[in-house]
Write a structure and sequence with these properties.
This protein is α/β, with parallel strands linked by helices and 191 residues long. It has a single domain (5-189), classed as Rossmann fold. It has helices spanning 35-44, 65-81, 108-116, 132-141, 153-162, 178-189, and strands at residues 5-9, 47-54, 88-92, 126-129, 144-148, 174-175. The longest helix has 17 residues, at 65-81.
Length: 191
């Protein structure tokens, strides 16, 4: 079946538990409650799932590309064992001072996704994240931003509620976790 519907997910704080010390090893990658079953449900619904994630730990020397590959191998294996599938992972390896075009809130990762998957219609594509920069990147790329309250999401939600400069994000749909977002999409499929 050719997929014609896609979702873009952030990784840390959406799929796996985040850490202020970074996810530096496969052992440190621990899936968040509901995320594996959510991705399995989204896969079953026919969504092609892509990941767009900042990984500045590479630029900071906290882990190597090799280790990042091992982390992603573990993620793929856990998701596959749960019945889900990630089509592709796009990551920014740069730090904040590198002035790259791919580090969210910039939209280089979205351009890379669009180049590799030209059939994706970004204005019809949900992009799920837990931080303000995820929402900003999704909006700038023309996607449909979604906020989950896991990871940094609760703090991000409060920031948006309390900062009038961010009022444009008050209309962004907010879900408790990736599982509740998946259930929302599933319930709309049944209507």
């Amino acid at each position: 079946m050719k997929l014609n519907r896609y979702l873009i997910l952030d990784r840390d704080g959406v799929i796996n538990l985040d850490s202020p010390d970074y996810i530096k090893s496969p052992e440190a990658f621990q899936p968040m409650a509901h995320s594996l079953s959510a991705i399995a449900l989204l896969t079953k619904l026919g969504y092609g799932i892509l990941i767009a994630t900042n990984q500045s730990g590479l630029a900071r020397g906290y882990y190597s590309h090799d280790i990042l590959e091992q982390i992603h191998e573990k993620m793929h294996a856990l998701i596959q064992a749960a019945g889900g599938k990630i089509l592709d992972v796009f990551f920014c390896p740069h730090g904040p001072a590198d002035l790259c075009l791919c580090r969210k809130p910039k939209i280089g990762l979205y351009h890379a996704i669009q180049q590799k998957y030209p059939e994706i219609i970004l204005p019809h594509t949900y992009s799920v994240g837990d931080s303000l920069r995820d929402l900003q990147a999704a909006e700038k790329a023309g996607c449909l931003p979604v906020l989950v309250k896991t990871g940094n999401g609760e703090k991000t939600h409060q920031t948006i509620q309390n900062d009038t400069a961010l009022s444009a994000f008050l209309s962004v749909p907010v879900f408790e976790h990736l599982g509740s977002f998946a259930e929302f999409l599933s319930s709309h499929e049944r209507k």
